[in-house]
Amino acid sequence: MKAIMVVGTTSHAGKSSLVTALCRLLWRKGWLVTPFKGQNMALNAYVTATGGEIGYAQALQAWGAKTIPRVEMNPILLKPQGNMTSQVIMKGDVVGVTNAKQYYENYFDKGWEAITESLDILAQEFDLVVCEGAGSPAEINLKHRDLTNMRVAKHLNASTILIADIERGGVFAHIVGTLALLDPQERSLIKGIVINKFRGDQTILDPGIKWLEDYTKIPVLGVIPWFESALPSEDSLGLLKRSNKKKNYELKINIIKLPHISNFTDFDPLEAEESILIEYIEPNQTLGYPDAVIIPGTKTTITDLKMLEKTGMMSQIKDYVESGGTILGICGGFQMLGHQILDPENLEGLEADCQGLDLLPIKTTLKPEKITRQREVAANYPQKDLPVDGYEIHQGYTELIPSLSKLRKIRYFSLFNDDSLGLVNETQSIWGCYLHGIFDNGAWRRAWLNNLRKKRGLPSLPTGISNYRQQREELLDSLTDLIEKHLNLDPILND
Q1: CA separation for the pair 88, 76 (Å, rounded)
Q2: How far apart are CA 439 and CA 90, in angstroms?
Q3: DSSP class of residue 56?
Q4: What is the mean pLDDT of the chain?
């Protein structure tokens, strides 16, 4: 199995996007391609067909390679959960919770074993692996215990690309400094340099590129122009860079940016709707009165709920509902909408129970066992017998409180034909579900949006549309076309 590695001079240099594009580009050239990231730290996760968790970025890269996401593509996933700890997921399954020091003491050898075993399995089925590094490969205080960057490159003898973000400034120093901190064997694997996010006249940059090639004796494979990426970010810092440029939108949806927000990839299909403006609201900001409010998933439901209470956002949400607003909670957000959240085993390290927003007559009990599975169900609302699919990732078990439901004398609908998966209060337009990827379902998304449009007196949008995966394919092709135009892979493929 031929191997290509992509490492970056910094975080957010463009590694994930480049690997995604390379997977699609090399697939076009006839290779059987698989992505790979030995260790990823992210709260955007995807559930494979076998029920294992991997980083969503690796799932996207698998779709770029026209293959099915699987746990071997990301054998180690770390999910930060506060107090400087992370949940450790290895080969798709939770194996523990740890801080950084304990991780390297307890999981380093097991992690490397998982990485090499996964690569061996992938090598049996694929011609070529495109690996993604993490952060920088030249963190001298961490290199001896780095599972993700040059240790993988050396293991595979991978032709390695170093990508740098010119928008940060100091791009030549970043590149030369990174190369200087690699040991001779690591540096010998760097076969090409890519400069990313360039704006302006490249002829002004050309003398610097010539100097860089002469100085490093490594070819610059390309200069990728700055572009507005619609691909999801690996962490919530990417949300800060999203710009709201839509001017002719008809509906506005506010999403609460929880401190430990997870799986905000759920909302990419809404971002792609031309008539919708999405705005992420910090808990200490003013919520306002948009057409809908979404409380997304979170790694720490009780902790983030306490933050909503502390900042006054909880009161704002309740006032918004009382005024007739529509609210939707997904996963942790669904749990928050309930009457109570119980944590009898102290999984979040706080008190054993917590009062929720009390907008749905449900209670959730947090348990160590994690539910991770893909789902295909039928929606009961807003349109009957509408097939939808998605995936679950949660450690909470939610149940209806019948006495509370009767007391309020409000009709509640099971959102799907699985009662445990979601609930709707039609009277007050309060929705909640465990299904990640719900908005990927085009017909369901449009049916939900048409409820909002009806309130505004706007005509309904057609519901007979394809699911978001078709738009995602177009995005992947567009990204690949752009990068192919500005990239010369010959030094890598001919190595």
Answers
A1: 7
A2: 28
A3: H
A4: 93
What is the rounded CA–CA span in Å between residue 495 and residue 492?
5
- Give me the catalytic one of 12, 174, 260, 436: 436
Would you say residue 310 has pLDDT above 80?
yes
- State the number of CA atoms in the 13 A half-sphere of 347 facing the CB: 22
Neighbour count for residue 431 (Cβ, 10 Å): 29
Q: Would residue 331 show up in a list of annotated catalytic residues for this protein?
A: yes
Q: Strand order in 39-41's β-sheet?
A: 39-41, 76-80, 85-90, 93-99
Contact 334, 304 (CB under 8 A): no
Catalytic one among 331, 354, 394, 433? 331
How confident is the model over 192-251, as pLDDT tens digits?
A: 999 999 998 999 999 999 999 999 999 999 999 998 766 666 655 555 555 566 888 999
106-161: per-residue pLDDT in tens?
999 999 999 999 999 999 999 999 999 999 999 999 888 899 999 999 999 999 99
Task: In whole angstroms, give the CA distance from residue 300 to residue 260.
Answer: 6
* Token pair 């939900």 in the structure block, residue: 448
Displacement of CA 493 from its chain's centroid (Å): 30
Per-residue model confidence as pLDDT tens digits over 25-68 = 999 999 999 999 999 999 999 999 999 999 999 999 999 999 99
Kindly report the number of other CB atoms within 10 A of residue 249's CB atom.
15
Token output for 106: 């307890």
- Compute, in degrees rounded to 10, the torsion defined by CA atoms 62, 68, 71, 74: 0
Percent over 70 (pLDDT), the chain: 96
Give the count of alpha carbons within 13 A of 332, CB side only.
23
Q: How far apart are CA 333 and CA 336, in angstroms?
A: 5
Q: Compute the CA torsion angle 459, 255, 42, 132 (nearest 10 deg).
A: 50
Taking only the tens place, the pLDDT of each residue in 66-80 is 999 999 999 999 999
Q: Is the dihedral of CA 137, 139, 141, 147 positive or negative?
A: negative
CA distance 334 to 396: 10
Give the tokens for residue 59.
């799932």
Distance CA 492, CA 25 (A): 13
Residue 339: active-site member: no
CB atoms within 10 A of CB 119: 21
Q: ω before 382 within 30° of 0 (cis)?
A: yes
